Amino acid sequence: MDVKDFYYDLPQELIAQDPLEDRSSSRLMVLDKITGEVEHRHFKDITEYLRPGDCLVINNTKVIPARLYGVKEGTEAKIEILLLKRKENDIWETLVKPGKKCKIGTKIVFGEGILTGEVVDIVEEGNRLIQFHYEGIFEEILDRLGQMPLPPYITHQLQDKNRYQTVYAKYDGSAAAPTAGLHFTPELLQQVRDMGVEIAEVTLHVGLGTFRPVKETDVLKHHMHSEFYKIEQSEADKINKAKKEGHRVIAVGTTSTRTLESAADENGFLTEKSGWTEIFIYPGYQFKVIDALITNFHLPESTLVMLVSALAGREHVLAAYETAVEEKYRFFSFGDAMFIVDRES
């Protein structure tokens, strides 16, 4: 399977730089995963495609202000750090720029000394393990000093940190937002509940590995980075009930999808579970849990385009993306949404 099979041409001007004022007013492309037919709607119309008994699965992870700017101790050298994973004892795996200035033993000062860090190890792909030192509560210091880790294709400054957060974000831990959920408002979620649709919550702390480019020509040689996930029994019960009664399980986002498909047994049954997943979903994968997917428009040749192609077929997905370009949909994190579903099911 060649990575070029998942390429499409995207004009730069279609990459959304700012979130819309009203989250639910973004456009929605409804893609029939069986026929490839598309409809053009707005996200708030999603309720017209949901049915009583359906189970909508959302990822309640919360993005931390994971980008820090500091200086190398004793110099004026500027250092940028992106927190990736908390290890233990205030040690974090980080992405550091410029890496060559940060050998083991390097000390970095943030916020005039409110926070300091020392590089204690260099791990895979040149990531640094940094031991942080501070007084008080780390999360509060991070909130003061850190910035939201917007993807590199977003060049505008984010005015309101909460706009890179879902309205249901609950548990700190992500280096990137589960962006499909950014379209929901509290009012729309209440409307969904009032219809008799069950909403189940799972947690997957999104790492940057999800968005890293596939550098291998042969897709099957690509290695996914691990991400932590958790499902509580009460939420597993909601999903199992919907499946048992013949209703649809609809994942909000690729992160919810990866969580469900990682945690389920071979029959698609879920129990309370937590752990690390490196699941890589590409065409040929047989889904065990999800029936439909709400998602954004993803980068060409990315693992996310491969995941949606596994659900709807590569030809259908690429044709839909071509239509989205022609219709000037907004792409990526702050862009428009797609609902992949079997309209007849």
UniProtKB/TrEMBL annotation:
InterPro entries: QueA, QueA_dom1, QueA_dom2, QueA_sf
Biological process (GO), any one: tRNA queuosine(34) biosynthetic process
Coiled-coil intervals: none
Keyword hit for Iron-sulfur: no
Localisation per UniProt entry: Cytoplasm
Annotated pathway: tRNA modification; tRNA-queuosine biosynthesis
Record field: catalytic activity: 7-aminomethyl-7-carbaguanosine(34) in tRNA + S-adenosyl-L-methionine = epoxyqueuosine(34) in tRNA + adenine + L-methionine + 2 H(+)
Gene Ontology molecular function terms on file: S-adenosylmethionine:tRNA ribosyltransferase-isomerase activity
Keywords carried by this UniProt record: Cytoplasm, Isomerase, Queuosine biosynthesis, S-adenosyl-L-methionine, Transferase
GO cellular component: cytoplasm
One Pfam family, short name: Queuosine_synth
EC number(s) per entry: 2.4.99.17
Family: Belongs to the QueA family.
Functional description taken from the UniProt entry: Transfers and isomerizes the ribose moiety from AdoMet to the 7-aminomethyl group of 7-deazaguanine (preQ1-tRNA) to give epoxyqueuosine (oQ-tRNA).
Cross-referenced PANTHER family: S-ADENOSYLMETHIONINE:TRNA RIBOSYLTRANSFERASE-ISOMERASE
Subunit structure, as described in the record: Monomer.
Designated name of the protein: S-adenosylmethionine:tRNA ribosyltransferase-isomerase
Annotated source species: Roseburia inulinivorans DSM 16841
